[in-house]
Amino acid sequence: MPKITYIDKDGTTRTAEAEIGSTVMETAIRNNVPGIVAECGGACSCATCHVHIDAAWGAIVGPPSPMEEDMLDFAFDVKPTSRLSCQIKVTDALDGLIVRTPEQQG
């Protein structure tokens, strides 16, 4: 199982095993990762699962879709590495992925 590392605003690191085909958001929720609110449950209709992808992973994770970019307009502290974790599907290629949660969700 791929492992995803979540780093919160205080620098606390949590690593969780993710199921292939699930999302980075679902993995966070299943593992009680603070900072991922996920109000819409993964429907890409809010920005409460916003994360910053570690720069080294940008090309592997890929860019946001146009719909995701629209939702990111509602997020707090948007950066070039911002993504909605509900839109990142877990694959073997994401083993070791590092994401950071913002200070607050949108």
Write the layout of secondary structure elements.
Elements: E1 3-7, E2 13-17, H1 24-30, E3 50-53, H2 58-61, H3 66-72, E4 82-84, E5 97-100
Parallel strand pairs: 1-5
Antiparallel strand pairs: 1-2, 3-4, 3-5
Overview of the molecule:
The protein is α+β, with helices and mostly antiparallel strands. It has one domain: Ubiquitin-like (UB roll), CATH 3.10.20. Helices cover 17% and strands 20% of the residues. It contains three helices and five strands. The chain has a five-stranded mixed β-sheet. Strand 1 and strand 2 form a beta hairpin. It is globular and about 30 Å long. It starts with a strand and ends in a 6-residue tail after the last strand.
Features of the shown structure:
106 residues; alpha+beta; globular; Ubiquitin-like (UB roll)
Task: Give a quick rundown of the structure.
By secondary structure, this protein is α+β, with helices and mostly antiparallel strands. Helices cover 17% and strands 20% of the residues. The protein is built from three helices and five strands.
Query: Mean pLDDT, nearest integer?
Result: 96
Determine the N-to-C terminus distance.
30 Å
Strand order of the largest sheet: 2-1-5-3-4
Q: Output the structural class.
A: alpha+beta
* Rg, Å, rounded: 12 Å
- CATH homologous superfamily designation: Beta-grasp domain
| CATH class identity | Alpha Beta
User: How helix-rich are the residues, as a percent range?
Assistant: 10-25%
Query: Looking at the chains present, what oligomeric state does this protein adopt?
Result: single chain
Given as residue ranges, the uncertain stretches (5+ residues, pLDDT < 50) are: none
Strand content range: 15-25%
- Briefly note the CATH topology name: Ubiquitin-like (UB roll)
Largest sheet: 5 strands, mixed
- Name the shape in a single word: globular
Domain count = 1
Query: What's the total count of β strands?
Result: 5
